[in-house]
Every structure is written in C-alpha cells, then in structure tokens.
Amino acid sequence: MTNIVAAILTKNEARHIGDCIKSLNWADAVMLEDSFSDDGTVEIARQLGAHVNQNKFVNFAVARNNALQNAAELGATWILFVDADERVTPELAREVKQTIAHSAHNGWWIPRYNIMWGHTMRGGGWYPDCQLRLMRVEAARYDPERQVHEIVILQGEAGYLKEHLLHYNYDSLAQFKLKQNRYLDFEAKILQEKGIRAKPWTYLTMPAREFYRRYVALEGYKDGWVGLQVCSLMSWYMFLTYVRLRRLYQAE
C-alpha cells in the first residue's frame, strides 16, 4: 500500500534531482512529473528508484494536477510536493509521517527557509514562506486559472507543520535574474486576464510600492546587503512585468 508519494516537477534539474530524491527516501514512492528533460534528470531519477511521468509543460497548475492524478493511480492517500531545489530534512520527514498517521486535516502548510546565494532569508516575504504542499490526494486540485504561483483548491481545512523545507533558491545573482525573467510572461498574462491595464504612472508607483512592501513592511532590511539587492530586483521586475503587459495589449 502506498500511503504517501513525494512528487517533483522537473525540467532539466540534473544538478539538484539526486540530492532532492535522496532527501525523500523515507516516502513510500517518489514520482517525477517531467517536461522532457534532456540533461540526464530522468536517468538519475530512475537510477534512484523514482517513477517518471513525462508530459509537455503547459503551466504549473496543469503539471501539479497531472501529478495528483498519477499519485491516485499509484494508490497514494497523501502527496507531498517538493521542488527539485528543495530538501526535506529528517526532522520534517518524521513530522510528516507522524502527522499523516493521525491527521484531522486534508492538507498541511509547511514553512520554508529560502537560501539565496548562501544567505538564509529572514525578511522580505521569504520567511516563513509557508507552502501548502502536503495534501490528501482525493481532497485536492490546483486552480487552472493560476498558471504560476499555483493555488490549491482543498476540501476542508489545512493545518500548519513546524519543521521546515530547505529551499536553495539561487546560488548567484545571475541565476536569480534568469529565473525571474522566465516568470515575466506568466505574470503579465495573469494581469491581462484580469483586465488590468497600466496607467502612465503605474510604471513608477507599482515598483515603488513593491520595494516598500518587501524592504520595509516585510522587513527585508533584516537580510542586510542581500535583502537590499533582492528587494530592489523584485521592484525592477515589477516594472518589467507592466512593460510586458503593455506589449501584450499592443499585440492584440
């Protein structure tokens, strides 16, 4: 009987996938939802005993819903979603196993330490950064309207675990910029679907608001120089998102 399956969404994650799977060796099964990686990710995963499902990437919500369906086909009662650049600590593994053995909830939020170029973030919205990742398979699905920063539609209430995921977000500033650039089109499309249009002043006010929110209201200053860098960059990417939004409307 498969009580819990750990699911990982992948696309060319050879650098991370081995350590990620090894941190999940306590689960009844580990499963990849892979978007046709060509860097050895799939081979490494299979060598470590993981199940591999491959589908063309549409968006994150579709990929996670595919994982839920495949977990059900494996007979799993619970699913734990873990990103390839995350690690489950032994302490979190023990808490998960104890929790699902006597769970009164259909889902559980897990706090997360975000590690950016060697620094564990304490402010700016990156801590405690709780993620709804542990859920009863039959009671969860992802909102198809949210293509990025997915939202779980859960039957019933969710509780909160105490132990943390470790999230190795970015090794360098260059990696941060590369990943944020990939999100720009998704974010702009979400704004367009909501009917939001940029006013002339939006290109100044929204980035300024984002910087204040992260650096001051969410205490990004606690992270020193790294906090200033990251909050400034998030402000810049807010500006670029509205530039992309304008281009989407112009293309129509």
Q: How would you describe this structure to a colleague?
A:
With 252 residues, this protein is an alpha/beta fold. Helix content is 42%, strand content 22%. It contains 7 helices and 13 strands. A hairpin with a 2-residue loop joins strand 7 and strand 8. Helix 5 packs across helix 7. The longest helix has 28 residues.
What is the fourth-level CATH superfamily of the largest domain? Spore Coat Polysaccharide Biosynthesis Protein SpsA, Chain A
- Helical fraction equals 40-55%
Which of globular, elongated, flat, extended, rod-shaped describes the shape? globular
Radius of gyration: 19 Å
CATH class of the largest domain: Alpha Beta
Task: Please give the CATH architecture of the largest domain.
Answer: Alpha-Beta Complex
Key attributes of the depicted protein:
Spore Coat Polysaccharide Biosynthesis Protein SpsA, Chain A, 252 residues, four-stranded mixed β-sheet, seven-stranded mixed β-sheet, 13 strands, 2 domains
Topology:
Layout lengths: L3 E7 L3 H9 L6 E6 L6 H7 L3 E4 L5 H14 L4 E4 L4 E3 L1 H12 L5 E4 L1 E5 L2 E2 L10 E6 L3 E3 L9 E3 L3 E3 L4 E6 L2 H21 L8 H16 L6 H28 L1
Parallel strand pairs: 1-2, 1-4, 2-3, 6-12, 7-13
Antiparallel strand pairs: 4-9, 5-13, 6-9, 7-8, 10-11
Helix pairs in contact: 1-2, 5-7, 6-7
Short overview:
This protein has 252 residues and is an alpha/beta fold.
